[in-house]
Write a structure and sequence with these properties.
Chain B: InterPro entries: CheD-like_sf, Chemorcpt_Glu_NH3ase_CheD, Cytotoxic_necrot_fac-like_cat. Chain B: Keywords: Chemotaxis, Hydrolase. The structure holds 2 protein chains of 2 kinds. By secondary structure, chain A is α+β, with helices and mostly antiparallel strands. Chain A contains 6 helices and 8 strands; from the N terminus they run αββββαααββαββα. In chain A, strands 1, 2, 3, 4, 5, 6, 7 and 8 form an 8-stranded antiparallel sheet that branches. The longest helix of chain A is centred in the middle third of the chain and has 26 residues, at 104-129. The model of chain A has no long low-confidence stretch (mean pLDDT 85). By secondary structure, chain B is an alpha+beta fold. Chain B is 18% helix and 35% strand. Chain B has 2 helices and 10 strands; from the N terminus they run E-E-E-E-E-H-E-H-E-E-E-E. In chain B, the strands form 2 sheets. In chain B, strands 1-3-8-9-10 form a 5-stranded mixed sheet, with no helix packed on it. A 5-stranded mixed sheet of chain B has the order 2-5-4-6-7, covered by helices on one side. In chain B, strand 8 and strand 9 (146-151) form a beta hairpin. The model of chain B has no long low-confidence stretch (mean pLDDT 91). Classes of the chains: A alpha+beta, B alpha+beta. At the A-B interface, strand 3, strand 6 and helix 5 of A face loops of B.
Amino acid sequence: MRNRLDGMKEVANIGTGYAATALSSLLGANVVMDVPAARYLCMAELPRFRFAEGEEIAAVYAPLGGELSGGMFFMATTKAAAAFSAYLLEEKLKLKPHVFAESELAQSAFQEVGNLLIGAYLTALSKLTDLKCYPLVTELSIDLASAVLAEGALHLIDDEECIVMETDICLPHSTQPLDGLLLFIPDKNASVTLTQALEASCHD
Amino acid sequence: MTKGETISIGEWKIVKGEGVLRTCGLGSCIGIVLYDQERVIAGMVHVMLPDSTKARKGANPWRYADTAIASLQAELKKQGARKLCAKMAGGAQMFKHAVKREFMQIGERNAAAARETLARLGITLVAEDIGGTKGRTIQYDVKTGELAVRTVHHGQMIL
């Protein structure tokens, strides 16, 4: 069997491709997504992952439903989240980070971006592997990165480590830096299921 | 910054004499400090779920309120603590909808399990800051016995 991380990277690549296309058409701009990385993290590392301690972020979170369990996050610093919303609402200059924290419209625009990315990513996985897999529901939280990520660890309670697939997203030609992070965190069973389904689809 | 230890989910640390214990973010998780003020020793643990009896066999005891508090008490006694008191914070509900059924109200259930375990072990719960919808970070100073609880938009309170 191939290395599980390589398999997961392939999964992430396909999810990312769909997500990039969907976001580009929503924003009417060319979205750049880095080649996704897949890594093992022990549970205690997950809340400290990527963001500074105590950093406030905006996160769209979706627990997975269907044949895979785990969770997905779309996260951005509140500054970048404000910029995403402003871009989508075509209010490029008006939306400041503190406005984001109080503007339901801005928050719902950001959540829309997250919904779209997560939905497209999981649709790609479903198509590739023939596994049913969808977001159960999505929800926005504006809070400490570490506390938000720890909520994603709840399903992983029985695992000592997890595989995290991360994709950095940016919109290079906008006036403000638009950087977001897409995380796919299947639980142990789901990563085994995904790897097996991927192998099977390669042999068809 | 004062000498200190930062713990994450399912981790625990003890300090003696001086120093601080911190957690990184607590959402529905709970940070529990057990301390003996007279002997200037304290331990902190960061638990995720209430009840280890519902977990599969071989589960990590430091992730569950019932077993983590008992284990921390045992470690502190080994290191010379006698009369232990407790302070705790966390147990928020950060996501109202985006939780699977098994994790509904998990913050409240964590807090209830922690209170029950403390009572069973004869540890006095001196102060708590539980619930709400916002994540917290906490920091306990072993010398002063103060537990500082911070949230993003509501500043800091001292327990």
